[in-house]
């Protein structure tokens, strides 16, 4: 994959939306479509917890409660990650930035690398989010997300790819979900205005009703119509 035309730096596709907006699923589609890696801060942080690193121990309580972890910590993780070779053309940010301070740090970092960003905001109605989160299951082995209604596995309770048993992610429990939604409203939603006001390319997608494949098609159209994006070739 190469990126033609635009400046020398990477293209950051920033995918953001509330918990249950389908960020994870759309990231995976975008990885295939654009051939650039997905960077999920949630996955990176869960990986630290699984491995029992110092970072993992420091964040465990906040993660379990559905609170955000400190900005400096995620900024550092993302900064280190996007400077690896596989991110030179671009990358998809799933779940980052989540605060104005993270967004400002990311814009500076990307400017330093000579890159640019496209922001995709997946908006979803509150009631839809709650019902989606209730049916959500994950494969702890490969990370694939399923949903009892919108994306059921072929065999109930079992991952299609590796037959591992599907579980409810600890932070998908109902009380934690409502805390995560509160955090989203207070800290992350204001990023729409932040990006709009700073003149970044912002694509608003209503992700409430249609199937993930249809929503992905609309993201593809929006990317294609933006200068500097949709310019990938193999
Ligand atoms: P996610 O899988 O993206 O929903 O993230 C799961 C949890 O990881 C969140 O509830 C936060 O505790 C933490 N987290 C993920 N990304 C960030 C971020 N950018 N800033 C702060 N905390 C984060």
Structural account:
By secondary structure, the chain is an alpha/beta fold. The protein is 44% helix and 18% strand. A five-stranded parallel β-sheet has the order 3-4-2-5-9, sandwiched between helices. Strands 7-6-8 form a three-stranded antiparallel β-sheet. Strands 1-10 form a two-stranded antiparallel sheet. Helix 1 crosses helix 9 and helix 4 packs parallel to helix 5. The longest helix is centred in the C-terminal third of the chain and has 15 residues. The chain binds adenosine monophosphate. The site of adenosine monophosphate (AMP) has 18 residues, from helix 2 and helix 3.
Brief characterization of the structure:
The protein has 234 residues and is of the alpha/beta class. The chain is built from 9 helices and 10 strands.
Q: What is the helix fraction of residues, given as a range? A: 40-55%
CATH topology of the largest domain: Rossmann fold
* Biggest sheet, spatial arrangement of strands: 3-4-2-5-9
Helix tally equals: 9
**Name of the CATH architecture of the largest domain:** 3-Layer(aba) Sandwich
Spatial gap, N to C terminus: 4 Å
Largest sheet: 5 strands, parallel
* CATH top-level class of the largest domain: Alpha Beta
Low-confidence stretches: 226-234
Amount of beta strand: 15-25%
Number of strands: 10
Would you list the SSEs in sequence order as H and E?
Answer: EEHEHHHEHEHEEEHHEHE
C-alpha geometry = globular
CATH superfamily of the largest domain: P-loop containing nucleotide triphosphate hydrolases
Q: Give the class from helix and strand content and strand pairing.
A: alpha/beta
How many domains comprise the coordinates?
2
């Amino acid at each position: 994959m190469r990126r033609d035309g635009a400046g020398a730096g990477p293209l950051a596709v920033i995918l953001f939306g509330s918990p249950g907006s389908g960020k994870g699923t759309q990231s995976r589609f975008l990885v295939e479509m654009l051939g650039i890696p997905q960077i999920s801060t949630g996955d990176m942080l869960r990986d630290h917890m699984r491995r029992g690193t110092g970072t993992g121990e420091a964040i465990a309580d906040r993660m379990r409660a559905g609170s955000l972890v400190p900005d400096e910590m995620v900024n550092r993780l993302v900064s280190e990650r996007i400077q690896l070779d596989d991110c030179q053309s671009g990358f998809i940010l799933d779940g980052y930035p989540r605060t104005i301070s993270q967004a400002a740090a990311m814009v500076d970092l990307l400017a330093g690398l000579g890159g640019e960003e496209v922001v995709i905001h997946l908006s979803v109605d509150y009631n839809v989010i709650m019902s989606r989160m209730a049916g959500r299951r994950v494969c702890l082995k490969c990370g694939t997300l399923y949903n009892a209604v919108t994306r059921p596995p072929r065999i109930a309770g079992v991952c299609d790819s590796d037959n591992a048993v599907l579980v409810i992610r600890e932070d998908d429990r109902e009380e934690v979900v409502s805390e995560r939604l509160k955090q989203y409203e207070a800290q992350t939603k204001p990023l729409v205005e932040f990006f709009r006001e700073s003149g970044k390319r912002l694509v608003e997608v209503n992700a409430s009703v249609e199937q993930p494949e249809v929503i992905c098609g609309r993201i593809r159209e929006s990317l294609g119509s933006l200068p500097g994006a949709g310019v990938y070739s193999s």
